[in-house]
Amino acid sequence: MDKQRLINIFDRQATQYDKKREDPKQQRWRQNLIGHAKGNVLELAVGTGANFPFYPPEVKITAADFSKAMIDKARQAAKDHHLNAEFICSDMEEINFFRSIV
User: Fold this and answer.
1) Is 35 helix (H, G, I), strand (E, B) or coil?
2) Calpha distance 92→89 (Å, rounded)
3) What is the DSSP annotation of 68-102?
């Protein structure tokens, strides 16, 4: 499937993703996994920010997704949960992260 078509599908589904409720077992799983995050976190395919309620407040998040609509929902979720987050709207295959070593 062509990437732009896939992005369009996710853009249309962003509101539905935001409205879905998870069962308590999945919420506990997220809490156990994400609740221990520290420092700088890179979250790829952030979607609507479903993990955001579980991050400790001191974590710095860089969140990426290829859907602008998903990023918009995630940005609001980060604001609602008082998180320090930056957002990148890009295909994961095209993101270039590098770290200079001194």
Assistant:
1) coil
2) 9
3) HHHHHHHHHHHHHTT-EEEEEES-GGG--------
User: 24-41 burial, b for 16+ CB within 10 Å, e for fewer?
Assistant: eeeeeebeeebeebeeeb
- Residue 2 has a pLDDT of 83
91: which 2 tokens? 């295909």
For residues 55 and 32, is the Cβ–Cβ distance under 8 A?
no
**Cβ–Cβ under 8 Å, residues 41 and 60:** yes
Instruction: Express each pLDDT in 10-65 by its tens digit.
Output: 777 777 765 665 678 888 888 999 999 999 999 999 999 999 999 999 999 999 99
Instruction: Give the closest residue to 77 by CA, choosing from 42, 48, 41.
Output: 48
Q: Which two tokens stand for residue 99?
A: 């770290």
Under DSSP, the state recorded for 46 is: -
- How far is residue 36's CA from residue 39's CA, in Å, rounded to a whole number? 10
